[in-house]
Amino acid sequence: MGQEPRTLPPSPNWYCARCSDAVPGGLFGFAARTSVFLVRVGPGTSLGTPPFRVIGELVGHTERVSGFTFSHHPGQYNLCATSSDDGTVKIWDVETKIVVTEHALHQHTISALHWSPRVKDLVVSGDEKGVVFCYWLNRNDSQHLFIEPRTIFCLTCSPHQEDLVAIGYKDGIVVIIDISKKGEVIHRLRGHDDEIHSIAWCPLPGEDCLSINQEENSEEPEILNGKIITQTPVPKGCYLATGSKDQTIRIWSCSRGRGVMTLKLPFLKRRGGSMDPTVKERLWLTLHWPSDQPTRLVSSCFGGELLLWDLTQSWRRKYTLFSTSSEGQNHSRIVFNLCPLQTEDNKQLLLSTSMDRDVKCWDMATLECCWTLPSLGGFAYSLAFSPVDIGCLAIGVGDGMIRIWNTLSIKNNYDMKIFWQGVKSKVTALCWHPTKEGCLAFGTDDGKVGLYDTYSNKPPQISSTYHKKTVYTLAWGPPVPPMSLGGEGDRPSLTLYSCGGEGIVLQHNPWKLSGEAFDINKLIRDTNSIKYKLPVHTEISWKADGKIMAIGNEDGSIEIFQVPNLKLICTIQQHHKLVNTISWHREHGSQPELSYLMASGSNNAVIYVHNLKTVIESNPDSPVTITEPYRTLSGHTAKITSLAWSPHHDGRLVSASYDGTAQVWDTLREEPLCNFRGHRGRLLCVVWSPLDPDCIYSGADDFCVYKWLTSMQDHSRPPQGKKSIELEKKRLSQPKPKPKKKKKPTSRMPIKQESFDGNEEESIKENSGPVENGVSDQEGEEEALEPEPPCSLASVVSREPVIYPPDSLGPEKSKVTVNNKVTLLKKEPPKEKPEALIKKRKARSMLPLSTSLDHRSKEELHQDCLVLATAKHSKELKEDVSADLEERFHLGLFTDRATLYRMIDVEGKGHLENGHPELFHQLMLWKGDLKGVLQTAAERGELTDNLVAMAPVAGYHMWLWAVEAFAKQLCFQDQYVKAASHLLSIHKVYEAVELLKSNHFYREAVAVAKARLRPDDPILKDLYLSWGANLEKDGHYAMAAKCYLGATSTYDAAKVLAKKGDAASLRTAAELAAIVGEEELSASLALRCAQELLLARNWVGAQEALQLHESLKGQRLVFCLLELLSKHLEERQFSECKSSSPSYHDWTTGTEGPFVERVTAVWKSVFGLESPLQFQTALQKLQSIEYPSATNNTPSKQLLLHICHDLTLAVLSQEVAAWDEAVKALLRAWFRSYDAGNFTIMQEVCSAFLPKGCDHLRAKLGSPDTPAFKSLEAFFIYGRLYEFWWSLSRPCPESSVWVRVGHRRKNSVEERQYLDNASPEESDPEASSQPEPSEPADLRLTEESEQMLNACNELFSEKHASLQNSQRTIAEVQDTLAEMIRQHQKSQFCKSSVNDPERNEPEQEAERSPSNPQSQCKEEKNEPVSLPELTKRLTEANEKMAKFPESIKNWPFPDVLECCLVLLHIGSQCPGWVTREMRQQAQQLLQKYGSTQVYKRHCQTFSI
Question: What does the buried/exposed string (b/e) look like for 322-350 if buried means 16 or more CB atoms within 10 Å of the residue's CB?
Fold first, then answer.
């Protein structure tokens, strides 16, 4: 069971009438997001046999799949149909998982789909506008039907009559149509008053199966259909069941067109708690009518329960609850789909999908749950295996829930617990406590940090200190001050560290999460006396021993701190983009020194591994800067999101990337081992199984977690070129974020799986950016409701407006065919009028009402005169005159002020009602009420510049108030700069600056602050820093550097300039750092710049960059030697040093003289190295730099640089007469190229530096027998030996230093003996494939080759042969032991799979046999290697190793047995050239030490 790949799929889509289906034989499918997942359901009888398995995915739709149905016709169970919101219906072959055919006939969202159970090639679909399409795939024909102008919710084809289709609508209407008669309505069934969720036909034709009294309905009055078609009687009739949101199930008689039974859902009290009062609104009522039980009906209920109704006794309403015996086996949320499945052993099962994100399988015989398939409703952000409860995998998901998966469960492949309380957001980070059982820390995208006890049902503890942004990483580590200052009993042994998106690392006390968490930046600043701005932190990782903490930063740097006070001991300047992940190698491996390996990944797709052993053990006083990695792992094509070391292998790493793949690496060899490409999205997390060395789990933004086996992968490295394009297309088929548009009110149930989706922020520590690999960084992700769901869903659904055409249209209009294409009429732009026709617009009247009243009829005007005369000449106004004046307010112009004010008020109201507040304001000004005008305008948001300009008339305080009110109004109108200007007019400078800053008008804010504030005001510095951080975030590095310089943060200015990483930016940054006195930073940046130029072969630019800093004098010498060596190799036609246009210095042109003399001459003439003291100073500087050892995958340019560093040390040592050091440096250079497997470079360097051999070094050395010199001499002879051997294999050897071609004379006795003794049996089988000398008798050895062959005695070192044999034995025994442990774990892990019928014996034997060929030396003789014997071998080899002197172990030596074999090959090709004594010595060494598997076959060639 453990060796089966597993898939944790996305959640089945919600609110779809039919989006899951199954066919006999055990194949089940369900729609999830934009694809369909296929599940093979087996009998699951024997222990260990999984009852189900996710076997594949149908990928092709670009939007949510809304319908899925199998063909239920024998012989074509492999066919299925899907409908999608992308407007297509696709027909698939599930065996090949490809589309057979498709159509895009619908113009609106498809809401229902069914494959006819009677017609083999008929697929019927309906959409939200009421349009039905019948599609016959065999003849590629279709029929368009428009039955009702209503939203279709579900449809089901009749299993008895091929032309009948039942359709359920949103408003509760159910119709049965005959598609053979153009969709003629046979019955219109009225009774439901809400959405029809499900329609099920009785599995038996006729109406004899139920004993229902059809003359009287038991509870409901008889409901007749709206339209009875007497011409088309239905023979025998049939029952139809419908489930509706109105909480009822109705059974209909098709023969009579009426309802015959109504079943009302019971309110079931939930076990373990009271029922949610809002549960009624969230009902989804789905049905299944069992084919073998026509008197029973299965339905869903309010809270996820399933009911089995007994239809035989309609008056009793009898039902049975599923899973009454098992607690907690029912769904906890509403059920959407039910589909039956008959297994191969004829077992009747029922599969259900629910809002609780579980797929459950029920045994219809017992009504008990057989198994549960959990699923994910969001991105799989984080994976973490418990270090205490082995096999317990925690999954952090974007649906607001944490899953705990017991991966070792034998009975249940998907034994999973879900935790949701207190989370309420996407879970982006997880971390188990290293020693405490069940203690799980989690972080969310809203900045929350909490602790769960997974063994209890209690809510989590939540830290009172929140991050301002997403929590990226959690890590347990030892407490640091101030939390570590208490006594042993007053503080926890481990505290929780969290890193958030705002760039801060917090330390939380797990004993008191309600207390304040501490920002460790303060401690870092105080301990290391840091003055500059600390970088934005993005990752934190503790070494397993708890003594070292690594922090990754946004600028790509990684800082290494030492407890207890977080002393900075090292900064790694390797990545130049945001660091996403850091991982330390495990402790307690077979090689303890590997625990110092630290792997890191960033946004630049390259993984770097650093070996920090030297730095950590040396504990430097000042921080060391590392710019060279120990290993470089290149291959991914997008950002690295997660790294995990194998707990089973030494130096094996798995990486997850945005390129959609996970990659396993052998880091020590820099080799890619296998590549997993099963995900359809960007990978976010990866973790190695703690028990199975072959098993890895990965999670991605495709809502999936995959368990996969490294041994089953077809690819060894990430896709490049065309393959990556294919993967990009695969990811493009994922749902894309829809643009935010104002949607028309739709009459369909909301697409829940998207409607709850927020914009999924990228969890990989980067703000939303451009589309990468075809998937935007802002991806729609489904947001889960809590398991105690709110009532928002139902309210959203119920409040949704539904727009129907008016019923008065009648049947004639309802038959109108919908056009396939809708043409929108474009409005023509208005034509311009000629200037002559444009009249001058007349100014708007200030008193329009009065003016209009003065233009009434003559009688009215006369009456005005009479009323005015009465009012003017009467001493006391009578009531009737006052009423007349009030009615005729326009007479206020001619009477007193009070009447005039009344007229102005009426006119002003008229202006406001007509939308002319400015005229109202002018009238108020005329009236003299300026204060009132200002207050009214401020309340209505209608202040203007004119009003504010007049405000001083109302007084100083009124003016201040008006300006502030106007500034607020301008802010609401997004006119922030103008608002700030008005604030400045009343001397509110700080408020104006803050307003501009908060709305990102930094340039304007700085201008105002510089002009109006003191130069030393802290606000100004804060402005610069904020502006700089914002510009840096947007990638405007040069402008950001100006801001940091303005804030006198010179260090940050140089750092931000270097972020671009190109040579020009690095050089400018280095110059800037030098100007401001940041010498160390300047040197580091100048070296980086030179290395960038080196890649482009710009030697002149590289030297100019190194000239920027005096401390890089030693590096200038290295680069000079590298340039001279590259020129030398290029002239010798060395391909890897060729370049299109290398920029060499003039001093590389002189080629005369020995190479070392040319180097020293250039150093003296160009770099001014004259005195031994100068040479000594340069030597000391370069000796402090160490480069990692090489591997086969080390790039040649990097290898040449490292070799030249060693060669520079050698030449400098010679100049100061330190010959011992010179020999050691030369040996390091030789061995570096030997390790890299680059023999050509080794020989070219040898010919350049030791053209005449090692004799001159022997003469200079006081004691030439030193181990280092012996090793150097051995490597020299080793290289010459190979050159000589290869010269023999050329088709036509020419005269050389090794072989002299003579004329065809055969008078030499030696030549005759050569011919007589040259027998084919002595030649090596492998060598025979190489071209042999055509005239061996014409070849004669030169004097030099004779000396070389005689010198081979130096290679036949007994001590070194014994040492190397012990080392090989130890390596082979360790490999065998590791393989035995893995096989033992595998056998323990897979015990239950022995009885699996799908796995035959040969496969099991293959699994049990060791995969390592080196471990099969005894198996070939059928003698199994026992553990005691292996242990004995290992002990003996280690004891031998301990006896060797350190001088021999410390210095490398060529493989002695390899040299023996080469010499024997030469002797077999050219007998007589190798002396008998040497051949015997070689054979003795091979016989004595060639017992390992590597040399056995070669020894057999020479009959040893």
Answer: bbeeeeeebbbbbbbbbbbbbbeeebbbb
Q: How many angstroms separate the CA atoms of 1175 and 1170, rounded? A: 8
1019-1056 tens-digit pLDDT = 999 999 999 989 988 889 999 999 999 998 888 899 89
- Give the pTM: 0.76
**What is the Rg, in whole angstroms, of the alpha carbon atoms belonging to the chain?**
43
Helices (H), 1339-1425: 1343-1351, 1358-1389, 1401-1408
Q: What is the pLDDT of residue 1386?
A: 62
Q: Which DSSP symbol is given to 750?
A: P
Residue 800 has pLDDT above 50, yes or no: no
Helix (H) or strand (E) run with residue 1474 in it: none
List the beta bridge partners of residue 167. Answer: 155, 175
Is there a contact between 587 and 641 (Cβ–Cβ < 8 Å)? no
Phi and psi torsions of 791, nearest 5° = -90, 10
Residues 873, 874, 880: CA angle, nearest 5 degrees: 125
User: Are the beta carbons of 632 and 602 closer than 8 angstroms?
Assistant: no
C-beta of residue 906 within 8 angstroms of C-beta of residue 892: no
Q: Which residues pair with 601 in a beta bridge?
A: 581, 607
**How sure is the predictor about 1453, in pLDDT bands with cuts at 50, 70 and 90?**
confident
The one-letter code for the residue type at 310 is D
Q: Map residue 735 onto helix, strand or coil.
A: coil
Cβ neighbours of 230 (radius 10 Å): 5
| Beta bridge mates, 30 | 20, 37
Element (H, E) at 686: strand 683-688
Indicate if the pLDDT at residue 418 is higher than 60. Answer: yes
| Cβ–Cβ under 8 Å, residues 16 and 67 | yes
C-alpha closest to that of 804 among 244, 169, 285:
169
The reported pLDDT for the residue numbered 1038 is 93
786 to each of 425, 458, 593, 1190, 1293, how far by Cα in Å? 10, 16, 47, 54, 82
User: What's the chain's average pLDDT?
Assistant: 80
Tokens of 1423: 């003698």
The CA distance from 347 to 965, in Å, is: 77
Please give the residue that has the higher pLDDT: either 876 or 362.
Answer: 362
- DSSP letters of 1045-1086? HHTT-HHHHHHHHGGG-SHHHHHHHHHHHHHTT-HHHHHHHH
- Look at strands 624-626 and 567-572 and give their pairing: parallel
Backbone angles phi, psi at 947, to 5 degrees: -65, -45
Strand positions, DSSP E, 532-670: 537-542, 548-553, 558-562, 567-572, 579-584, 597-602, 607-611, 624-626, 631-633, 640-645, 652-657, 662-666
For residue 65, the tally of other CB atoms under 10 A from its CB is 28
Q: Where are the alpha helices (DSSP H) in 451-554?
A: 520-528
Written as six digits, the tokens of 297 are 């009906």
Here the tokens at position 464 are 């009172």
CA pair distance 934, 946, nearest whole angstrom: 11
CA separation, residue 1313 to residues 699, 1306, 1307, 1337, 1341 (Å)? 72, 11, 11, 10, 15
- Please tell me the distance from the alpha carbon of residue 973 to that of residue 1156, in angstroms, as a whole number: 75
The string of pLDDT tens digits covering residues 214-255 is 433 444 444 344 444 344 444 468 999 999 999 999 999 998
| Rounded CA separation 301/789 (Å) | 16
Tell me the pLDDT tens digit for each residue of 458-503. 999 999 999 999 999 999 999 998 887 766 666 788 999 999 999 9
Q: Give 3-state DSSP helix, strand, coil % of the chain, rounded to 5.
A: 35, 20, 40
pLDDT interval class at 404 (50, 70, 90): very high
Smallest CA-to-CA distance from 765 within 604, 583, 582, 554 is with: 554
